[in-house]
Fold each of these.
Amino acid sequence: MLVVMSVDATQAQIEAVAQRIREFGYTPHVIPGATRTAIGITGNRGPEGQDALRVMPGVDAVIRVTAPYKLVSRETQSEPTTVQVAGTRIGNGFTVIGGPCAVENEQMIMETAEFLWQQGVRLLRGGAFKPRTSPYAFQGLGEAGLRLLAKVKERTGIGIVTEVLGVEDVDAVAEVADVVQVGTRNMQNYALLRRLSKLRRPILLKRGMAATLEELLMAAEYIVSGGNREVILCERGVRTFADQTRNTLDLSAVPVVRSLSHLPIIIDPSHGTGKAEYVPAMSRAALAAGADGLLVEVHPQPARALSDGAQSLDLAAFREMHAALRPLAAALGVEMC
Ligand code: PEP
Ligand code: MN
């Protein structure tokens, strides 16, 4: 259920409604809006309490939210969620996040960060903990990788997006990360999602490689319902029979998610295609489709990368792709940030 407060409802009236919801044994989630406040209710199984809430002072309407995901639903919040982080605002313009698949050594991560910063990119991606299909593949530098990211952040000022693999690493990752990434393999790791719901950091939640959009939104609901409203969704391709690309990038996720949810959605054209040569076209398509940004792999020497080299743009290719996005963004009336 959702309680919509009237435009002139007072803070005391909002608190009184929240208190009444608690008395029913439910959980209130106060959602401030540009003109009015709404209060999402979770934990209730039926319409019980609806009439009692409807007649309270300051209440405009009590409505049933029909979607299975409640707090991330458009029904609950019509205004888009924006996430203010590291000098950029995700969900209000087109935000490009770039960087290598993995942090490999100080020289390459510093070089990439300095280059991207000069290009106007304000968020650097790079995994310290890597989820690899093979246990024999490079697993990331772990805590040493986090320390390198901290150094890069201190020296350049760039914000850090980095993945967390398990609950045990959340605190260490959150110390360095401006945005904590949840990978495709962990989208349905509910213990991890619950832990991240208590974290005061934005979460970049990637779509599971075989997940429906409803499952993605339900995963986001775990994070938001626990109290962390700053979730950025990421489409990174799903498994299909198509084998010319690593995954099939589902760009239709952008308008679908847009219609179902208020959360921002960005596109990962690197994992979506698996081949650097296809990344610029899908990046332009993401912008044209209305995505809130890109998560793109960039490496100073892709041929020498320890992971995902084939899908990583080198610095010149990134510069060219980024430059080509600008006139397109201008034509669409979208600000690049
Ligand atoms: C990554 O971003 O490097 C990554 C491992 O992505 P995904 O979880 O989408 O495979
Ligand atoms: Mn990767």
Amino acid sequence: MVRTQLAARDVRDRRVLATMARIPRGAFVPTRLHPRAYEDGPLPIGHGQTISQPYIVGLMTQLARLSRRHRVLEVGTGCGYQTAVLAGIAAHVWTIERIDDLSRQAAARLGRLGIENVTFVTGDGALGYEPAAPYDAIVVTAAAPAPPDRLLAQLAVGARVVIPIGSREVQTLQVLERRADGVRTTESCAVRFVPLVSPSAFPD
Ligand code: SAH
């Protein structure tokens, strides 16, 4: 998976490749989908949600430009796979999920894998998570019509948010870097994420 789906494309960050080679994606999908765990695409994880395509997880992590010292916020825990990848590189990850059952299952899964530098929060991630702000990076794994203001406000200067922006059906992966004099936006590729369900993104 790492060689053919990530390194052969444009995921080149050595820490991202090494971390994704270490974390068993099979541990994050329902048992009946184990044979398909390393396929080049998203898979259903229950509650109408998905585990992202491995390439997209690698790309988003690379775009976040993490270091060992970084404190990271993830919005949309889902099954916890992206969470585990972020935690494999950064100092600590706070991850918010709106569906309590998914959050609990992800926490149990990461516990079994011995990953301890993660705090699980249930709530509306479009509002960020104020108690641990500011963050060195924010990774949003659900689509929004525009970057939520509350998330941008919780970025440290020089930090970036990686977020799919667009309609409910199709989006562009964007990187917004907070600078002393404003925000600089760069665009990556076209993506399809489930909606960020929130009064300040896509209402339920
Ligand atoms: N990070 C996951 C992908 C999760 S899919 C992975 O590694 O594969 C997106 C997740 O975002 C879903 O679990 C969905 O329930 C959650 N979500 C949607 N809107 C949300 C919101 N406002 N706050 C927090 N989580 C939200």
